[in-house]
Specification:
Layout (H helix, E strand, L loop, with lengths): L1 H21 L7 E2 L10 H16 L6 H12 L1 H28 L2 E2 L2 H18 L5 H21 L2 H19 L2
Parallel strand pairs: 1-2
Helix pairs in contact: 1-4, 2-6, 3-4, 4-5, 4-7, 5-6, 6-7
């Protein structure tokens, strides 16, 4: 059964890669951030770092989503590594950043569109992770906003995928400490 799950993840990752090369890479998304400082990747990375520090310092219990991830990681660590650290960041960034930018917000040159893009993609990313409390909502929303900001600053999904994967890897490793 584990082999079938791993094969499924590899297959879906390959399909994602094909989608990337055939569809997303050919989309023309116009991005114009209103202030030059917004293009500096240190700001979304700093926001992400502050989020991690806040999670470590504040007594916020794990969300339902995080508890489910912990159960899965402890039950099947090898399979969970691929699902949580590799597959989930690729798919979530393709959906929440790439799909929305390409299909719904291809023209991110106006301030209103940028604000709507940030709010919509951050909210949907947050809701997909099932927050039940305000602190969990704020954590996932901020994470979604930082990933969206990094994508807009670099104009390349691979950066937000990498940061998302790094966050999930950190969470994955923390389970075993």
């Amino acid at each position: 059964m584990l082999a079938l799950g791993i094969f499924g993840l590899i297959y879906l990752t390959a399909l994602s890669y094909l989608h990337w090369n055939r569809v997303y890479a050919k989309m023309e998304i116009k991005i114009d951030l209103p202030q030059p400082w917004m293009s500096n990747i240190l700001f979304p990375l700093g926001l992400f770092a502050l989020l991690i520090i806040a999670e470590l310092l504040l007594p916020i219990p794990p969300s339902d989503n995080q508890q489910a991830v912990i159960k899965g990681v402890l039950a099947q660590p090898f399979f969970a590594f691929f699902a949580v650290v590799i597959f989930a960041p690729i798919m979530e960034e393709l959906i929440f950043r790439g799909l929305f930018a390409g299909y719904f917000f291809p023209n991110l040159t106006q301030k209103t569109n940028l604000i709507l893009y940030f709010i919509l993609t951050s909210s949907l990313f947050c809701l997909a992770h099932g927050p039940r409390t305000i602190p969990h909502f704020l954590i996932y929303f901020t994470m979604g906003a930082a990933l969206a900001w990094l994508y807009l600053a670099k104009r390349d999904l691979r950066y937000s995928m990498g940061l998302h994967a790094a966050n999930n890897l950190l969470s994955f490793l923390m389970i075993f400490l």
